[in-house]
Amino acid sequence: MDINRFERRDAFEWHIPPSGNMRVPAVIYADEALISAMDDKVYEQVTNVATLPGIVKASYAMPDAHWGYGFPIGGVAAFDANQGGVISAGGVGFDISCGVRTLLTGLTHAQLEGHESHLADVLYRHIPVGLGSKGEIALNPREMDAMLGGGARWAVAGGYGTPADLERIEEQGAMAGARPDYVSERAKTRQKQEMGTLGSGNHYLEVQRVVEVFDAHVADVFGLHRGEVVVSIHCGSRGLGHQLGTEFLRDMAAAAPEQGIVLPDRELACVRIESELGKRYLGAMRAAINCAFANRQIITHLVREAFVRFFPEARLELLYDVSHNTCKREDHRVEGHMQSLFVHRKGATRAFGPGHADLPDAFSAIGQPVLIGGSMGTSSYILVGTSESEARAFSSACHGAGRAMSRHAARRRWRGRQLVDELAERHIQIRSPSSRGVAEEAPGAYKDVRAVVESAERARLARRVARLEPIVCVKG
Questions:
Q1: Residue of 344, 399, 408, 427 marked catalytic
Q2: What string of DSSP letters covers 36-69?
Q3: pLDDT single digits (tens) 370-402
Q4: 399 is catalytic
Q5: For every residue of 209-265, which 3-state class applies, written as one string?
Q6: I need a labelling partner for 443 at 20 to 30 A (CA). Which of 80, 384, 402, 407 fits?
Q7: Could you report the per-residue pLDDT of 2-41, keeping only the tens digit for each?
């Protein structure tokens, strides 16, 4: 991307002033190398979002931004319903409430040594993974609606985890305003046997070790200590979320012109928040958020069952669970006044700073854990939200490394079996049902995650706390 098209505010903040139909500026946070390497589609999409009715302050893109469906992945935009603001299924994404949760094992890497391969095998056998994977849970219609209304709370009530887990999940594990009756029967059918499954694509379960600590005080509060082992789970609402995205994108594209909305790109399909279709999408999307919460909660239970076979002393307490494909109603300060806004985060993570009312008591004084997934074979990071992020991007940060090339290009360049062998030489155990999927998720297909998180920190979106390296990766 040509950086001369931007107004450079500092080394990590790049502005596109309003022009044409843009209602607000577009802002990208990244260092010069990252923004130069971004596809021109990111520029096009972040400016397209800036044309939508009711958008507030700016259309934002995070340091990991890349081309997506309508909105860029790594995009953040907030809308005011009182000003005719819109909600967009493309601004949430197909994998509604895809997110990351991290568990603290209390084990040292030394305790794990010698067990890595066997542990990888047990996790791979115990947790269904891959395209169309099915779990042992089959929900009847009543159970399905209870799950969509109750999220992780429903899962904990069913024996999948403990009440203590709920304190460390966004929305305490259950999104208010969910409407299971707005979820289509087709979506429910697709999800019937997918609870407790990882799925495919970039989803994973990873056993990691803490190799570097940047902020000792925050790390101690989070329970992160150098040399100890954690487990991270990355997945979302599976077939149900994808089906809802497909259905509502179609309906929104048809309804937008009827509501006087001019779409610069059909993929940017949206409707007024206060319209009947907008309310139906909100209710269905919130049910899908609960589906994702419940799914990650069940997987957590399965991980605990697998670990106890080797390490009865392992704690596996939940550090945090945060989503990165959502639209949430939140209160934010705009030009000195509090406004109730609908914040879209697509491939972007909520990053509340110290003192926010929605944080667990344990984190209130320091800020929210921000979980940044790397790619298979590279580092992941844990950050903490900052006070500045509220004004910078509605308390948002990056969510991962971000793709640097398409899956098709990755398949042409790498072979899955070869990657598995190369990573094994680096003492990283990979388990996956798909050699093709491994090739698509090659570490080289992603941006440099170190540069991404450093940009997020220098842009004052979130601050680094710890760096993690993989030991075992179960890949979809």
A1: 399
A2: HHS-HHHHHHHHHHTTSTTB-S-EEEEEEEE--S
A3: 999 988 889 999 999 999 999 999 999 999 999
A4: yes
A5: EEEEECCHHHHHHHCCCCCEEEEEEEECCHHHHHHHHHHHHHHHHHHCHHHCCCCCC
A6: 384
A7: 999 999 999 999 999 999 999 999 999 999 999 999 999 9
